[in-house]
Amino acid sequence: MTTEVNDTQTVLKCYHCGDICADDSIKSEDMYFCCEGCKIVYEVLNNNNLCTYYDLNSHPGNDQKGKAQGKNYDYLDSDEIRSKIVEFSTEQITRVTFFIPGMHCSSCIWLLEQLHKFEPSILESRVNFMAKTLSVRFSNNIKLSQVVTLLDSIGYQPRLSLDELEKKESAFKDKSLIYKIGISGFAFGNIMMLSFPEYLSIDVSSTDLKFLFNALIILLSLPVLVYCSSDYFKSAFKSIKQRFINIDVPLTLGIIALYGQSVYEIAAGHGAGYMDSFAGLIFFLLLGKIFQNKTYEFFSFERNYKSYFPISVAVLKDGDEIYTPLSQLKQGDKVVIRNNEIIPADAYLLTGDANIDYSFVTGESDPVQKNPGEKLFAGGKQTGGLITIEVMNEVSQSYLNRLWNNYLLTGSNETGYTHLSNVISKYFTIVILIIGAASFLFWLPQGIQKAITVFSAVLIVACPCALALSTPFTLGNALRLLGRNNFYMKNALLIETLSKIDTIVFDKTGTLTQTGAADITFEGKPLTTLETGIIKSMFRNSLHPLSKLVHSALNNAGYVVIDSFRETAGKGIECRYEGIEIRAGNSEFTGAGELSTVTQAEFTNSTGSRIWLKFGDTLRGYFTVTSKLRANLDELFGKLKNEYDIYLLSGDSEKEKIRFEKNFGEGRMFFNQKPETKKIFIENLKNEKKRVMMIGDGLNDSGAISSADIGVSVTDDLMSFTPASDVILKSDGLKNLSGYLKFAKSSVNVIKFSFVVSTIYNLIGLTVAVTGNLSPLFAAVLMPLSSITVIAIATVGTIFANKRRGLEL
Amino acid sequence: MSAIFVMIGASLVVALGFLAAFIWAVRSGQMDDNYTPSVRILFDDDKPVTKSVKKEENSKNNK
Question: A362-379, pLDDT tens digit by residue?
């Protein structure tokens, strides 16, 4: 018999968060909720007449399951921590900015800006949705901890980690690009207006007027040259110093020629020069820059261990729990760890049943059972009851910390340009200089002045503005489209690297399998409804993670009253129902070990953990708990297999080898891998000149992720902690992986195509230039026209490529 | 023709005024967040106190 997770009744959705309710037991008035947490949030809002929250969007809330609500935030009021968190504080008023990952819709904005309705001492609260921050200004009648407790009570827990606090000091936003765009746009428009007589060939007879126009044009173009284009000069100078030509070199040549020629023409009284084209060029280039730089500011791609840990932990002193900042945790301190809390430092277990989930650190899927006196490593998460531990080492000395420090992300591609455009600009510059020199020599017999004019005309018209624009617009748009499909890249330049990937390495636990979900099957004589009810009630009492999984799978049965429930750590659970003893647990606990070998052999083809079940004296069968695979994996591997080398590296044991054999094939799966061996594996692949993409999720993959050409961390919740990586991929996007890779390839093709188009424009311009006929009007039309064509190709091309891959726009 | 001198002068003053306004706007932080205000403006100031009714229509896409 198979007990499935699907239910048959009408689906009841939680009024607060929209999750499916297991039953209708949790309700308030006529609303149903999936958990107590959601109900509490609803009641808080209802009592404050803030239910507009639910009218703006249906089910706007954050799922409150597993969130430790009602946490004690008193530690925030200690001077040391408070001073790190608040931005600004006077006698009366304090201002503080929180990072709130749970913010996701307009209801969130509305509610978070209504904080003053809950607490009159809060003067103002402002949301920045893109950065997911909330600035709160409050009078000092209330404490900082009260503000945080309020946010907690309405379901928006701010992220308070050491890392977040330290970031605040360096949070300085560079606005110079916006200023530059504004100024160059202003100059562009006004110079064009002043150039109208020139465009329309109006003969301005008054010399005074002519002088005024020209003087104004030069005046307006000065800030564009000195301020707006300064970055291009700097970059070109730097690259020449390093004996290397990037695209800024021909660009700077063009800019100088354009400006110099214009000043010369204006001064000599030949005409108005090309100042309009010059200002327009800079304006478009800067626009491209801002488009490419628009990344996901609320994601943190470079995190360290500090953002994984809480700010403070509960230290036991004379029987009291005192919240102590993590940095002050000393050897010998006794710390209380509750369900779902992280062990902050290497420690010994003192009391309690420790079930430590190390899946994030090591990749092992099953929690590890520890007995008092045994050593616990930092980074593990306690699942189950409360435990106390004694700290062995300070936080900075822990195993986890060493793991991090060994694998600092090595900065890749810091030049700001793609490899492709650098290669092209090298040849481009050389060719342009040759053409320029040739036409200079050709025109030299007609006078040095004409020759110089033609030479600068060549540089002007060949200025690779279209070339320089195609990359930022294509990549910027591609980055945005990938983001829409839950594939968030650190920066747009990585798309080129992504297009070259030929080898993909997967982690298993948490990457291919889902965290916190399992396939549960029962084998043996089918259970009756009453029996299901009994075991469901029994499993409800247990805190063991496996019990919780089984409990949630048995959803079509009601609870019954059971007595003398007992949990034996590491073995199993037992209870009595109407005098019959019922046991569930490992084979030793239930006596399944005495089964005949024949029956045992039949069971060996199943994988995963097994929970035996015994009613009275009869062994009824067992539950198999296997980690649940993510959706559509077979389809994905079917697509990937032919085009890429794929490997599986798992920190887990070989128990699930058979499951993945069809996808990876023999010899491509490696189990029991340590973080170090994973990293070495990737490095070996890279030494074989493979372009490697590593897809993982936990700390144990962080070394491999940072050494791969593209490191991807997969996560269920985008705002939760992920190791430093190039890409953050939301787990339901994993099935589209081959689509993303193909899309990256098409994007690079779009760039190549726009290079061709811009070369055609350049050829047209060059023909005119070398014959010595380049007029300002021709330049003023040709240059923006080529730029706009390229931008259009970049935008339309990426959208088209995106559609072809079946991705969402 | 002398009118043109005045007109050019006036047009530049107006344009410079807008440039100054733009720089002021960037400085005062108006460009820091270009999404939230677009949502904020759609909220009603204060609704009369009524009990919320389930509304399924104006659901999902608010991004």
Answer: 666 677 778 888 888 887
The answer as to whether B61 is a domain residue is: no
Distances in Å between the Cα of A472 and the Cα atoms of A202, A451, A498, A739 are: 38, 35, 16, 22
Stretch A313-332: mean pLDDT, rounded?
Answer: 78
Range B29-58 burial, b when 16+ CB lie within 10 A, else e: eeeebeebeebbeebeeeeeeeebeeeeee
Question: Cα(first)–Cα(last) distance of chain A, in Å?
Answer: 43
> Tokens 């050709």 identify what position?
A442
Contact yes or no for B55 and A55 at CB 8 A: yes
What DSSP character marks residue A364?
Answer: -
In the sheet with A609-615, reading across from the earlier edge strand, the strands are A513-524, A618-629, A609-615, A580-585, A572-577, A563-568
B21–A contact, CB cutoff 8 A: no
Nearest CA in chain A to B56: A58
| Residue A577 or A517, more confident | A577
Confidence label for A161 from pLDDT (cuts 50, 70 and 90):
low
Band of pLDDT at residue A66, cut at 50, 70 and 90 = low
For chain B, positions 23-62, list CB contacts with chain A under 8 A.
Answer: 23, 26-27, 31-36, 39-40, 42-44, 47, 49, 51-56, 58-60, 62
* Nearest CA among A213, A252, A217, A218 for reference residue A235: A252
Q: Is the pLDDT of residue A70 over 60?
A: no
pLDDT (tens digit, 9 = 90+) per residue, A442-457?
888 888 888 888 888 8
- Which residues, in sequence order, are CB contacts of A527 under 8 Å at separation 6+? A1, A3, A535, A620
Q: What is the pLDDT of residue A453?
A: 81
Q: CB–CB of A311/A81 below 8 Å?
A: yes
Q: Which domain holds residue B9?
A: 2-29
**CATH homologous superfamily of A514-629:** Calcium-transporting ATPase, cytoplasmic domain N (3.40.1110.10)
Distance from CA of A136 to the nearest CA of B (A): 16
In 3D space, the residue among A747, A671, A711 whose CA is nearest the CA of residue A504 turns out to be: A711
Domain A74-170: which topology?
Alpha-Beta Plaits (3.30.70)
Contact between A701 and A363 under an 8 Å Cβ cutoff? The reply is yes
- Cα(A603)–Cα(A198) distance, rounded to whole angstroms? 90
* pLDDT-wise least confident of A31-40, A477-486, A638-647, B4-13: A31-40
**How far is residue A108's CA from residue A154's CA, in Å, rounded to a whole number?**
10
Higher-confidence position of A808 and A477: A477
Render A124-172 in DSSP notation, one character per residue. EEEEETTTTEEEEEEETTS-HHHHHHHHHHTT-PPP-BHHHHHHHHH--
| pLDDT of A3 strictly over 50 | no
Q: How far is C-alpha A451 from the geometric centre of its chain's CA atoms?
A: 55
Q: Could you give the dihedral angle defined by the CA atoms of residues A732, A734, A736 and A742, in that order, rounded to the nearest 10 degrees?
A: 150
Contact A468, A291 (CB under 8 A): no
Chain A residues with beta carbon closer than 8 angstroms to that of B33: 128-131
Q: Decide which of A793 and A83 is more confident.
A: A793
| CA–CA distance, A620 with A317 (Å, rounded to integer) | 49
In a domain, B55, yes or no: no
What is the reported pLDDT for A65?
A: 62
Give domain A310-343+346-392's CATH architecture: Distorted Sandwich (2.70)
For residue A592, pLDDT over 70 is answered with: no
Q: Is pLDDT above 90 for A48?
A: no
Structure tokens that stand for B30 in this block: 């108006």
A15 → chain B, closest CA residue: B54
Average pLDDT, chain A: 79
**Is residue A762 within 8 Å of residue A752, measured between CB atoms?**
no
Helix (H, G, I), strand (E, B) or coil at A647: strand
Q: Average pLDDT, stretch B20-41?
A: 84
Close Cβ partners of A634 (under 8 Å, ≥ 6 residues apart)? A662, A663
